[in-house]
Design brief:
Elements: E1 10-18, E2 24-31, E3 36-40, H1 47-62, H2 70-79, H3 87-108, H4 112-115, E4 126-132, H5 135-147, E5 152-157, E6 179-181, H6 191-209, E7 214-218, H7 225-235, E8 242-244, H8 254-261, E9 266-268, H9 275-283, E10 289-290, H10 299-312, E11 316-317, H11 327-339, E12 346-347, H12 353-358, E13 359-361, E14 371-373, E15 387-389, H13 417-420
Parallel strand pairs: 4-5, 4-12, 5-7, 7-8, 8-9, 9-10, 10-11
Antiparallel strand pairs: 1-2, 2-3, 6-15, 13-14
Helix pairs in contact: 1-3, 2-3, 3-10, 5-6, 6-7, 7-8, 9-10
Length: about 450
């Protein structure tokens, strides 16, 4: 006699948009057995595009599907449309993937990293950001990060002669990758001034912390190949953990020139969304670290494929983890890190206090997050005039005001106890004073 086990089915998929300090888009999937999975669908500056894509094109396709068939659903959503790839599509697919892995973990009563083959490490190295308008302020910021327990720190400073520098505040405020407004701001940039100052500031940081602290630096896509090679060469004596986004990487062949002239480790890829965008960078060993974000790169399933290809070529994974992806995505990235042999480091910026009230994490829950998301939350989502944008970086504006015709894309030993100590259990959701915009 053959016994047929009836599979669970997806009965609801809801897109939730909210702005607790900044904008987040969250996907909530519910099954017939009452399990709920959460996925992050936040795409900075294009939040509503992803929300509409999910609501109008993806959610209707999920109803009735078996939530356990994660890979099958991934392939269905990716291959089922003529217009593939792109950040909006891949963020939408990634949100579904995260939510389904969350459901699978809750169904099995196990954290997701166990379902990915189990942990290959006991802790995860993470880095945070230190910024200062001048060198003394930068060193103070580095000291503050070390007091919090971080042994890997990204160091960024202001540039003499410039009034503004992306991510660095004259007032000493924490790094924030985007500002609220109706449109991006335009910044004036001086590459020569940056190339003169960056090695000086980073040399001071290295002398200040000694050889044991890992230092990282981000050039934010601002340099052409010669400038990138020049900066890399100048920074070699400082033993950086990595130099990130030295040049826009859409023209990937230019990185051959950078590679020929410097041995500083290169990290690229936070704006890439598929394995095909990484293929040349990985197979030609043009980079040392893959910077893909778990939600923008199609979720856990696809990020694991990217990591597997990178492992063959001795390239490591250092996922993007800014405040403009929600704690849902960061938790997912930590699970990937725990189970991935060539994982190296996790970016951790932190979140504004209201976001911690919305996305509450508890070490006692199974599933993807070890977390709960409050379903009754109050500042409804990003409205016209309240969206977050990264600035139009200064590659577009030289000091004389001319548009610059260069390709550009916008864009401790430390245990993250907040996210990955799990035991089995579930807790009832409770309302808070914030409220998601409800689906009409």
């Amino acid at each position: 006699m053959t016994t047929v086990v009836k599979a669970d089915r997806i009965v609801a998929a809801e897109v939730l948009v909210t702005s607790p300090g900044r904008n987040y888009v969250t996907l909530k999937i519910t099954t017939a057995e009452g399990l709920t999975g959460w996925g992050d669908a936040t795409l900075n500056g294009r939040e509503l595009a992803v929300a509409a894509y999910l609501r109008d094109h993806v959610c209707p396709l999920l109803i009735g599907r078996d939530p356990a068939r994660i890979e099958d659903t991934w392939q269905y959503l990716y291959r089922g449309v003529y217009w593939r790839r792109g950040p909006v599509t891949m963020t939408s697919v990634g949100a579904v993937d995260l939510a389904l892995w969350d459901i699978k973990g809750k169904s099995a009563g196990q954290p997701v990293y166990q379902l990915l083959g189990g942990a290959v490490r006991d802790r995860i190295l993470s880095y945070t950001h230190a910024t200062g308008w001048d060198v003394p302020a930068l060193l103070d910021s580095i000291d503050a990060a070390r007091e919090r327990g971080f042994q890997a720190i990204r160091a960024q400073s202001g540039v003499p002669g410039l009034d503004t520098v992306y991510g660095v505040s004259r007032a000493g405020a924490a790094y924030e990758p985007a500002g609220r407004g109706t449109a991006p701001t335009e910044e004036v940039w001086d590459t020569d001034a940056y190339l003169r100052h960056a090695p000086v500031a980073l040399a001071a940081a290295r002398e200040h912390v000694g050889p044991e602290v890992a230092l990282l630096h981000d050039a934010h896509h601002r340099l052409n190949p010669n400038q990138a090679a020049r900066l890399g060469k100048a920074l070699e004596p400082l033993d950086l953990f990595w130099l990130e986004d030295v040049t826009p990487a859409e023209n990937q062949e230019v990185l051959r020139h950078v590679r020929r002239h410097t041995t500083v480790p290169l990290a690229i890829g936070e704006v890439f969304t598929t394995i095909w965008e990484f293929q040349q960078l990985i197979t030609e060993q043009l980079i040392d670290f893959v910077r893909a974000a778990v939600t923008h790169a199609g979720g856990i399933s696809h990020l694991r494929r990217i990591a597997a290809l990178a492992e063959v070529w001795q390239i490591r994974l250092g996922p993007h983890g800014p405040s403009d992806v929600s704690p849902v995505a960061l938790a997912a990235s930590v699970h990937v890190g725990l189970a991935t042999p060539n994982f190296a480091i996790q970016e951790y910026m932190g979140y504004p206090d209201p976001a911690h009230e919305v996305f509450q994490s508890f070490p006692g829950l199974a599933g993807l997050l070890g977390a709960r998301i409050l379903s009754e939350l109050g500042e409804a989502g990003p409205l016209p005039g309240s969206r977050f944008f990264q600035p139009v970086w200064s590659q577009f504006r030289r000091p004389d005001g001319m548009d610059r015709p260069i390709l550009h894309d916008f864009r401790r030993q430390f245990i993250i106890q907040y996210f990955f100590y799990f035991i089995v259990g579930q807790r009832r959701l409770q309302p808070l004073q914030f409220q998601f915009a409800r689906k009409k």
